[in-house]
Write a structure and sequence with these properties.
Elements lengths: L9 E12 L2 E12 L3 E5 L6 H8 L7 E6 L2 E2 L9 E4 L13 H6 L3 H4 L7 H13 L15 H13 L5 E5 L7 H16 L4 E5 L12 E6 L2 E6 L10 E2 L6
Parallel strand pairs: 3-8, 3-9, 6-7, 7-8
Antiparallel strand pairs: 1-2, 1-4, 4-5, 9-10, 10-11
Helix pairs in contact: 4-5
Length: 247
């Protein structure tokens, strides 16, 4: 049996990060850290700022103050994107993709290898691993349009994992999926964190999706972040405020 990995360097770091659209502040002086081998859930109501937070983490937005870092490098200068996997919310158009599961998963390597470059034995080994891990072996040659919502979502997760990332950001991965898909996803996440030592940032409204898995829960409210350690029963006294009130 593989031993659980030890916690390593920070995969994602926010240092007094703030962001504003014009004069409207959306994120307020946020500071937190996610290390390899940790599972961190991010929760908050629509409009709370959690989507902006993830866009800052992935370099899609730049902070107006503070720094966001990936593996020690400022996001604006970070280049080793093979270390980062991103799983978007399952798009409605996923069912219309004229691609098989295999083709979708292989596109995850396009940024690293290019679509036309020869695949290496290590790529094929990793491909087989993630397809098996996500329970997609029996449908690997099926078109996305033939799959259930849960299978489509698992194909998108496999696509993010095929590069062997050290950090995976998942945006509402259980939205619109059935109980069987949730079970497989949960088992996969346990493997990723406890066996492969990957850092997982799991954005969700669904506490059942991360209950018992999360090391910490970041609650985003009006652009500020509070953190609590799992497992516990959510209560106002369980949170430690990590944000600095806006001046």
């Amino acid at each position: 049996m593989n031993a659980a990995p030890t916690v390593a360097d920070a995969a994602m770091t926010f240092e007094a990060v703030a962001f504003a659209y014009g004069r409207t502040t959306v994120v307020r002086d946020v500071a937190f850290e996610v290390r390899e081998g940790e599972f961190v859930a991010v929760v908050g109501a629509n409009g709370s700022g959690k989507t902006t937070l993830m866009r800052l983490a992935l370099g899609l937005l730049r902070p107006t103050a503070g720094q966001a870092r990936l593996f020690g490098s400022e996001v604006a200068t970070f280049r080793d994107w093979g270390k980062v996997g991103y799983v978007p919310q399952r798009a409605v158009t996923a069912s219309a993709l004229p691609l098989s599961v295999e083709e979708v998963v292989w596109t995850g390597l396009a940024g690293r290898r290019g679509l036309l470059r020869r695949r290496l034995p290590a790529d094929r080994e990793r491909f087989e691993h993630v397809v098996d891990l996500l329970g997609l072996s029996e449908v690997r040659r099926s078109r996305m349009s033939e799959l259930s919502g849960g299978q489509q979502q698992r194909a998108l997760i496999a696509r993010a994992l095929v590069t062997a990332p050290r950090l995976v950001v998942m945006d509402e991965p259980t939205t619109g999926v059935d109980a069987d898909a949730r079970r497989i996803l949960r088992e996969s996440l346990e493997h990723l964190v406890h066996v492969e030592g990957i850092a997982v940032v799991y954005v969700s409204h669904d506490p059942e999706g991360f209950s018992g898995l999360a090391d910490r829960v970041l609650e985003v409210d009006a652009g500020s972040v509070r953190v609590r350690t799992e497992p516990s029963t959510p209560s106002p006294g369980a949170f430690v405020d990590l944000s600095v009130p806006a001046r």
